[in-house]
Amino acid sequence: MSSVMTAPPSDRAEIVDVGFPFKSLVDRLSPGGRYIDAQSDVDSPWVPFGDKAAIKHLAFDVRQGIFSNILWVKEPGVVGTHLHRGTIVMVCLEGSVRYLEYDWVASPGGLILEVPGESHTLVTEHPEGVKLFGWMQGPIEFYDADGKFVDTTDVWWFINHYESHCRAHGIAINPKLYL
Ligand SMILES: [Fe+2]
Q1: Torsion over CA: 41, 105, 67, 149 (sign)
Q2: Which of 68, 90, 135, 153 lies at a CB distance of 3.0 to 4.6 Å from 59, suitable for a disulfide?
Q3: In whole angstroms, what is the distance from residue 15 CA to residue 8 CA?
Q4: For 96-152, what is each residue's pLDDT tens digit?
Q5: What is the fold, at CATH topology level, of the domain defined by 34-177?
Q6: Averaged pLDDT, 21-33
């Protein structure tokens, strides 16, 4: 008899050996899952990002060009126009944010998806700014007010942003952030 599961079996809180046949390969080759705390600065410090913002770096994956962090814009402000070459997943954690190019305003819990080729200008008008969790892939190109290319941020830029702050402040680099 086959049936469709309506919800996972959840009657007991206990560890079960699922008998996965490739467990030894996983143990040998997988970088492993992990937890990065964001309530404190123990796993990762807030690193200044301009005058009004800071970034808490959460993960770097150089194979896939992925970087994950929390961007905190601390008061009403702007992150200038940028063009994505990869895919961006963000969740608004606190405050609110919008883009000049779109008609929606993100509020806490909301999902923001951005795709390669999109360019936009981030604005928070919330009195306490915005905190955004991001799982981001690929280069981001920043442009000035005249549409002139300024610089690219990618996984290497974000790693350097984190590590140079750690070096300057005597903070140990956390190997858990590197996937
Ligand atoms: Fe963006």
Answers
A1: negative
A2: 68
A3: 15
A4: 999 999 999 999 999 999 999 999 999 999 999 999 999 999 999 999 999 999 999
A5: Jelly Rolls (2.60.120)
A6: 97
- Provide the residues around ligand 1 (an ion) whose CB is within 5 A: 114
Q: For 19-174, where are the E strands, in sequence order?
A: 46-48, 53-61, 66-73, 77-84, 88-95, 97-99, 105-106, 111-114, 119-124, 130-137, 140-143, 149-153
Identify the residue whose tokens are 């702050």.
165
Ligand 1 center to 168 CA (angstroms): 28
pTM above 0.90, yes or no: yes
Q: How far is the CA of 3 from the centre of ligand 1 (A)?
A: 43
Token digits of residue 5 = 């599961």
Q: Could you give phi then psi for residue 159, rounded to 5 degrees?
A: -60, -45
**What span, in angstroms and rounded, lies between the C-alpha atoms of 86 and 127?**
31
Query: Separation of 163 CA from ligand 1 center, angstroms?
Result: 23
Residue 11 Cα to ligand 1 middle (Å): 42
Q: How far is the CA of 174 from the centre of ligand 1 (A)?
A: 26
